[in-house]
Amino acid sequence: MPNRVAVLSDIHGVLPALEAVLAEPDVGAADHIVLTGDIAAGPQPTQVLDLLTSLGDRVSWISGNADRELLEYRRGQRDTIPDPIAPWAAARLREDHLDLLGSLPRSLSLTVNGLGKVLFCHATPRDDEEVVLVDSRPARWQEVFAGLESDIRTVVCGHTHMPFVRLAHGRLVINPGSIGMPYGRTGAHWALLGPGAELRTTHFDIETAVTRLRRDSSYPGIAEWADYFLRARATDADALAAFAPRDGRDHCP
User: Fold this and answer.
1) Whole-number Å distance between alpha carbons of 114 and 29
2) Per-residue pLDDT tens digits for 236-245
3) What CATH number is given to the structural domain containing 176?
4) pTM higher than 0.90, yes or no?
C-alpha cells in the first residue's frame, strides 16, 4: 500500500511543465506516480512520452480521450481530431509510442494510505469524455458513479483542467487540474494523495518555457499555443462556462 501518490493529469505534451513537477521533492519522494490521461497531445509529445517511460514501474498510466484520439488518428480509425494540435502531435509519434498508448487502461485502482481504495480515471469512471465539475448537481454524480464498487470511497479524475476537491454522495472526488494546459491560473497543477488529498501548484519560469517551446517544437502555431496555454489566458470562469452545458445541467427537470 503506497503512503504517498503523486497524481499528474493532462500533461498535454508540455515538457518544461512536466520537468518542473518531476523535480518537486514531494514527487520525488512519492511511492508512486499516477498519470490520469491526456499525456501526449501537445507541442512536445515524443519528449514527454520518452521522459515518462524512463521512470519505469514507478509510474502507472491511464489513457485519456486525447491519447485515444491520437492512436485512432494514426491507425486510420478517424479522419479528424477536434483539437488543432492533435493531428500534428499524432504524426510525430513512433510505433513504440503508439503501442504504449494502445496498451493503456481506462482506469485503475490503488489502495492508498488514509484514503482506502482509490479509483483513478480520466473523465469519469465510465467514460473518457464525460464532464463533471465542482458544481455538478448531486444527480449527475450519482449517474456517473453508477456501478462503482461500494468500497471505492475516493475517485480521482482529470479532463476538465479544473482543480477541485469535493464530496459527492459520500465519496471524495479529486481533480488535480492540468500540468500543461492550466485554466484560471498559471503553473503546473497536480495532486498529492495520502493520508489526505492536497492540490499542489508548481510554479516555473513561464517566459523561459514559452521561448523553449517556440524553439523546440515544429508545430506551426506554437507561438500562439504557448502564449495561450502556458500563460493561462482562459480564466476559470471561461472554462466553467464552456464545460457546464456538457454535464447535463441544461437538461435536468
Assistant:
1) 17
2) 999 988 898 8
3) 3.60.21.10
4) yes
